[in-house]
Amino acid sequence: MQRAIWIITFFIILAIGYYWMVVDDSRTQQMMQLADSDDELSGDVNSTVEIYDRLEKKWIGTSKHVQTLQKETHAHYAAYDAQMDSIDIVFEEIKFSIEQLEETLTRKIDRVKDDVRNLEDSFETFKRSTNRNVRDVKQTISTMQDDINTLNLTVFPPVEEEEKKK
Questions:
Q1: What DSSP letter does each residue of 74-111 carry, written as one string?
Q2: How far apart are CA 146 and CA 38, in angstroms?
Q3: Helix H or strand E encompassing 20
Q4: Cα–Cα dist 133/128, whole Å
Q5: Integer distance in angstroms from the first to the last C-alpha of the chain?
Q6: pLDDT digits (tens, 9 = 90+) for 111-151
Q7: What mean pLDDT is reported for the chain?
Q8: Helix and strand tally (H, E) in the chain?
Q9: How far apart are CA 102 and CA 98, in angstroms?
Q10: Which residues contact 165 (CB under 8 A, 6 or more apart)?
Q11: Given this model, what pLDDT does residue 73 score?
């Protein structure tokens, strides 16, 4: 029986030795590989975090640049609005001046039209009176012509009548 115990103890020691040499060694190697993989992964993570930090800083810089551009744009819009308001005021003044000028010109044109109408009326009146005077003068001339003819006949009788009288 002692011999069986020694054989079992020998197999147990042999199993422990096998475990320590073969199984434990593969476990140790696997642990070392995991440690190396962890180092590699943590390097990748650190690299990724570093890239992310750089990208975040880049975005922060870009957002500050965009914010500056927005402020400049808003300032330009404000200046543009102010300028447009002053231009609108000038346009309103010009429009008002044009309207006043138009009213003045309309009044003057109306006065000129009235003057032309009055002149036309005066011309028509003068024309009628002149025509009347011309007719009167023609009538008078005709009457005078008749009188002259009658006088001529009386003072200078025609040659045929003179011979008859003799």
A1: HHHHHHHHHHHHHHHHHHHHHHHHHHHHHHHHHHHHHH
A2: 152
A3: none
A4: 8
A5: 225
A6: 999 999 999 999 999 999 999 999 999 999 999 999 999 98
A7: 86
A8: 3, 0
A9: 6
A10: 157
A11: 94
